[in-house]
Amino acid sequence: MKNFLFTFFTFCAINLSFAQKVPKAIKITYQRSSNGKLVENQNLMFLFASKDLSLITSDKIMQQKADFPFEQTFVDFNTKTISQWAQLKANKSILSHDSEALGKQKFEFSNETKKILNYTCKKATTSVNSNKIEIWYTNELSLKGGPGVLGQDLGLVLETIRNGNSTLTATKIEILKTIPSILAVPSVQSVDQLTYKDLLWKSRFVNIPVFNKEQIHFVSDAKSNDSVFRFASGTVIVRKVKFPEIKKGSSIYADVTEQSNGDAYDRTGSVFMIPMDKKQSFLDGLKNGVKALPVYDNGNGKKYQGVVSTEEYTSLLEVMRFFTPFGVKHFNYLELKNKVWQDSVIYRQDISLLQPKLSNQEVYIGMFIGNYDAGGHKASLNISIHQGEDNNPKGDFILPLFNTLNVMEMAGQEYSTMFDNEKGLEMTFEVPQGYKNFKLSYTTTGHGGWENGDEFLQKKNTILIDEKEVFDFTPWRTDCGSYRLSNPASGNFGNGLSSSDESRSNWCPGTTTNPNLIDLGNLTPGKHTIRISIPLGKPEGNSSSAWNVSGFLVGEK
């Protein structure tokens, strides 16, 4: 009797094993959920797997509706190689192989099990960049694969959970009768992994190189060429740039990289756009001298060229205000113990508000660094466009109002000392019909005067619209010491401080100055006045205080 039972159960086990034949291939559909709720309008994830290969793809890719760039991941279980393939655009794709990643994956295994789609799953846990990842996998289909690179070699991954709240779960498993043709690694250009990541990242946005390591210095014979124009003895460079159509809601960034090429001092820098919408423009002044610019006169006896918009002239539209540090790169030979100087300074600023002025436009973009040094500085400027959806208007109306930064300082443009008069800076502007929710983008920095000058004193800025105060604040930076490693040539004082450590009027050597976005409400159509009032310090010997302020109006439809 015992022999009979043994034979019977052996026979059943053999037949059961034949019944669970390994499928040639499978297709698994995955859905995402967050905090227990299904993510709406999601792009479904698919896994195709055979005993040799797996492929991670998506519904939009399969339907040829995916936006460029898009990726697919292949895993070869025989060679333990992960291959990532990316379609960057219609006629360009790249491939990268990694034969070490699978072997480097480390897991903690648990005795916990649970059923997913009637398959018993085991649990493995790992950590990636401080994120806890739970992986639920099954070995009951005798195949391997998953919706991500993690756990591919454990079995079939039917669920991954990140930090307990972001879940990717298998909702459908299809047994395929044949191995689909897409389960084959494409034969395209292969690059190393770092190059692959870099090309994939750069394909996600539009980058417009404006200036590339251009020298901005003070020389009498500064020469222009076919693309870069030089003015004010070489301290101003300008180039005409064509921008593509930019959707509303896109993110636009300006990136400046700066190094000293001989100048040891902290200098004011500015990236600006030259509006060409009226009879006169700032370009006239650059070409023909400051006398070609309209004059602002507030009664203090000085003439300020090109600082406010008029009926026939639009002032410079400032894109970014930045400040060079003391001699970064060129003076890095000045050693201090435990100080490793930076090679350059990188300034990056969100300029998305300017979308209406850039989209599908050809404009003059300029850069200024005030200095009197023949070596001066070297600077690069790139503008990147990260396209968004056309459902979040940033501001359909932009009106440049004023810019007192004397970009033509080295060609005789007056310093902005008009604030020594009670009138300060005052101008009239006109609001068109059909706009609301107006804002003023206002950038301000104080300069000059040595110890008792406005560079080192806290001074309140007051803004009045139609003689009514709408905003006041005291611009001040107390974090300048954070940028010491960009300032090798900074002077050092007897009390142990460096000049670059000193707090300043809204700027530090080696930083940008962020604009203030001031709510003005719903201005009525028609003419209005704006006045900027700042209590300017008195001159000290041959040094005077000055305030560089720029502003433009933003309105929404």
Automatic annotation (TrEMBL):
Q: Where is the Peptide-N-glycosidase F N-terminal domain?
A: 207-385
Instruction: Provide the transmembrane region boundaries.
Output: none
One Pfam entry name:
N-glycanase_C
Question: Protein name, please?
Answer: GLPGLI family protein
InterPro entries membership: Cu2_ascorb_mOase-like_C, GLPGLI, PHM/PNGase_F_dom_sf, PngaseF_C, PngaseF_N, PngaseF_N_sf
Give the highest taxon in the source lineage: Bacteria
- Keywords for the protein's UniProt record, in alphabetical order: Disulfide bond
